[in-house]
Specification:
The protein is α/β, with parallel strands linked by helices and 386 residues long. The chain is built from eleven helices and 18 strands. The chain has an eleven-stranded mixed sheet with strand order 1-3-2-4-7-5-6-8-14-13-10, sandwiched between helices. The chain has a four-stranded antiparallel sheet with strand order 15-16-18-17. The relative contact order is 0.13. It binds zinc ion. The site of zinc ion (ZN) has 3 residues, from loops.
Length: 386
Amino acid sequence: MIKEAAKPMSYTSKDRIFYSQNNDVNGTTLICFGGIHGNEPAGVYGLQKVISDIVVNDIKFKGNFYALLGNMNALKTGVRYKDYDLNRLWTTYEIESLRDDNQYEFEEQKEQYELYTTIKDICNSNHGDFVFIDLHTTSSPTVPFITISDSLNNRNLADKFNLPIVLGIEEYLEGPLLSYINEFGHVSLGFEAGQHDDEKSVLYCEAFIWLIMEKLGLVSKDQFTYKSSSRLMNIERGFYEIIYRHSLSYTNQFKMKPGFKNFKPILKHQLLANEGVREVKSPSNGLIFMPLYQKQGEDGFFVVRKLSKFWLVLSLVLRNLKFHQLLRLLPGIHKHPENDYCLIANRRITLFLTTKIFHLFGYRKKVIIDDKIHFIKRDRKVIPFT
Ligand SMILES: [Zn+2]
């Protein structure tokens, strides 16, 4: 049990940036979010531990560092969110409806408005590379792992860690914060440190932040407890891909069977959960991922599988050679007239040219508009944050 969890969190909106060091506007800027989900305080405590070390040892970064609080109102009471999940609101529609008149329809609009304007201010006042880290925990026991949108720059940084790396979660979720940030070409990693109330989750967050800082060159190895951090984070390297999401409606009565641990093998037709009187069975062989053992949440569980080295190398080579441009020459596929990163396929062609091929070329997010499938590329040039 996290000891700090006993203390109530009493932040005001002035604490949105609860620590920053701005030393070089042209240097690398690291932005860490803690507590986007209010029942996941380990990220905030991990950041607080790092910050107290920075202050005590008077550490000065080669670059910039910002620690930001997520859902402050939900953190105070320890719930995932009050009205809406703050990590599902980062769609163009929601961003465009943000306003600064204090007449919010629901609690998370205020949180989102403050976060959005803070990120925008940071991005507009610095001119080097940006790296975003979002710290989370899960309701089931798990080894720490990284989640990323499958762009080569995200892969490059994530691959520096001896941790499982899960690609493509954004294909199944609507509006996570890091997917929005990825649209601007910035590197962004999600870090899931362990179970919500496990003391070790705080240690993992702390170690991950230090290691990220070292890998980005903000601090040198001798400036922090490098050995203990890298020993702690020496889990198991490997890339995974999500192949199934069991989505939940607000009204259903989902109950996961006990004992499922992240990344453990499951078999096709294995009983995983109950929804009222209905049994929920695994649609395929694979590994269980993020089984839900709490009331709030829209995802019952996911199924993942390990990606082969061959697939990873092939996709890297194809993308570096810009072979994805050949996809648009195929019949039934054309480029979006306004979006360079989007290919539109008619539904029939996707019977032959499966989603897997689009994944190989770095196209992940699928959106169906007017009976056509839009595949959106994750690799993109950096553009100003708007
Ligand atoms: Zn979370």
